[in-house]
Design brief:
The protein folds into two domains: 172 residues, Barwin-like endoglucanases, CATH 2.40.40.10; 72 residues, Sporulation related repeat (Alpha-Beta Plaits). By secondary structure, the chain is an alpha+beta fold. A six-stranded mixed beta barrel has the order 3-7-4-6-5-8. A four-stranded antiparallel sheet has the order 10-11-9-12, with helices on one face. It has a two-stranded antiparallel ribbon with strand order 1-2. Strand 1 and strand 2 form a beta hairpin. It has five helices and twelve strands. Helices cover 16% and strands 26% of the residues.
């Protein structure tokens, strides 16, 4: 199992009430046996809820890095790498104060308000689930979201431990969003998209060329400029395609050291 890195609350979070509380565990938790059918566990159903009294500070710090919460979850959509956490955390308090249930459809996120609801789609196979975000994390590498065991199982990522995903917040109360919350069946066959790291988007072609030269000077050979599509004006500089999560981690780390912020994009 490749679960998320444990957050040592006494070091990073102990002095600030309402911050993440996924602390160091004195012993391995004993999770109950799984339900007869994990596939039968329904997705989270978005509903209007007040912000939790716990887990929603303006900002917080973990391992020397400060995270600032988004003022609202509405409109959030991002692609990145998902991980999952299971038995070691079962029944322990989440950032919201609720006990973690590895068989519930929940997730952890670093900056979305708690609670929030999101559709998570595995970009490799098209499978999709809806989860309720009630915890903070993951605080390791370039991970975007930390899923419960059941959510990871339904996305077919428990064996690999990680997957490229798209996370899109669902606004509770909007009829069209509630209708979308019903998980569609995975297509019988779906060619996985090609994944790239986008190093920049420029309205001036020369600026895109300068970024490309900078990347190649740093030894990044598989960088290229994508010309604007009809009706667009942006020249996008992309690196890839990225073969797997390990390659993604290495490339993202290299670009970060160059001071280049990236986006995970598909083609």
């Amino acid at each position: 199992m490749r679960a998320a890195l444990v957050v040592v609350a006494s070091l990073a979070l102990g002095a600030c009430a309402g911050t993440p509380r996924r602390g160091a565990l004195p012993e391995r938790s004993k999770a109950p046996p799984p339900p007869a059918s994990l596939d039968a566990i329904p997705d989270a159903v978005p509903r209007i809820e007040p912000r939790s009294e716990h887990g929603n500070p303006v900002s917080y710090e973990v391992f020397g890095k400060r995270y600032t919460l988004l003022p609202t979850a509405e409109g959030y959509k991002e692609r990145g790498v998902a991980s999952w956490y299971g038995p070691d955390f079962h029944a322990h308090a989440t950032a919201s104060g609720e006990p973690y249930d590895m068989y519930a459809m929940t997730a952890a996120h670093k900056t979305l308000p708690i609670p929030a609801y999101a559709r998570v789609t595995n970009l490799a196979n098209g499978r999709s689930v809806v989860v309720r975000i009630n915890d903070r994390g993951p605080f390791v590498d370039n991970r975007l979201i930390d899923l419960s065991y059941t959510a990871a199982y339904k996305l077919d990522m428990t064996r690999t431990g990680t997957a490229f995903v798209e996370v899109e917040v669902i606004t509770p109360g909007a009829p069209q969003e509630i209708a979308r919350a019903v998980t569609p069946p995975a297509p019988p066959s779906l060619a996985p998209p090609r994944l790239f790291l986008q190093a920049g988007a420029f309205s001036v072609a020369d600026n895109a060329g300068q970024m490309l030269s900078r990347l190649r000077a740093a030894g990044i050979a598989d960088a290229a400029i994508v010309a604007p599509a009809p009706g667009e004006r942006l020249y996008r500089v992309r690196v890839g395609p990225v073969a797997d999560v390990d390659a993604y981690d290495a490339l993202a780390d290299q670009l970060t050291k160059l001071g280049i912020a990236t986006l995970l994009v598909t083609e």
